[in-house]
Design goal:
nine-stranded mixed sheet; six-stranded mixed sheet
Amino acid sequence: MINFTGDLFIGNDSFQIGDSIKALLATGKYIVSNFENVFNDTSLEMRSDKSSILTFSKKYLESYISNFQNSLIFTLGNNHLHDLGKDGIESTINLLNRYDNILHTGIGKLQQLQSPLIVEDEGKKIAILSVSTDEPEVMAILASNKHLGVLSMNDCSINNIISTYKKKVDFFIMIPHWGKEYIKYPSVQQRKKAYDWIDAGADLIIGHHPHIIQGKEKYNDKWIYYSLGNYIFPEFFYKNGIKHCWKKENTESILLSVDFKDGINITEHGLFFDVSINVLNESKIAYNNFIKRSLILKTDIISIKKYYGIWQKELYNALKNEYSLKKKITGYLPKHKDYGRIEFLFKRVLKKINKINGLN
């Protein structure tokens, strides 16, 4: 059994994992998580083109791994491993390499990344390939033969990597860090790329990055999970000092328990990370949201053409919220211990204005 989680950020050590979740995670040989953190033990230079920098300390890492007896696999093919440049990548890798129970994959020079991580479970060999993209909605930095980075999900070698290693292993898993943040559905382009990987031989696709649960889809009898959502992800601060508060939908995720003994058998669990107290527990609501979003991806019910319209509307709503008047004004508010109160008062004023203008 291998357990797969969503996005993991260990920006503090106050998080707790509920007993029922610990018991679930303990059943697997490995726990695979998208590790959205960069180690910072010095004053390293931050990326100037990023709005948020996600760093962790050795203390926080050890607080997290103390919860588990099994081995951890961190996929590093994402957009936050570069938050502190090349030095940040190297310091993160050097720290992770000190722990016998941590494996990692997804960051390195191009030639390294063209070989997947291979692990064994229940007598089966399993290849894991972590990929991402430099497209504007993600902004990961791509690897070259000289520079550390991620393997582009658009790299023309991927299908050949899948077909080559599929001859050497029992199962091949793709872990893409992709998609538009905060929307409930993947793009048509993502869906087609996932189909292409399965046609090349991939057995399972598990995605991350949108910070929200997206649905699952079956293609040629193989499952695609477009985004598992935020697994453990405390609230953090933007570069300008304004606190970024998660909505409830950003605190839900899906845990996959995958049994490889006789094919691929998957059990899904809904999770909820309560950011007010930083505690992770099970959630039926998260699971139900996952099922609802999965229905939209059933091509025998909704054609790709109709789906594109649904996706466009979802994208429009996300953009409308992102560029709203409230967002613009709160973006200029100074960092202040009473920021929450200031925001509350601003919402009250905005609600009054909308009421006067007949918008409510």
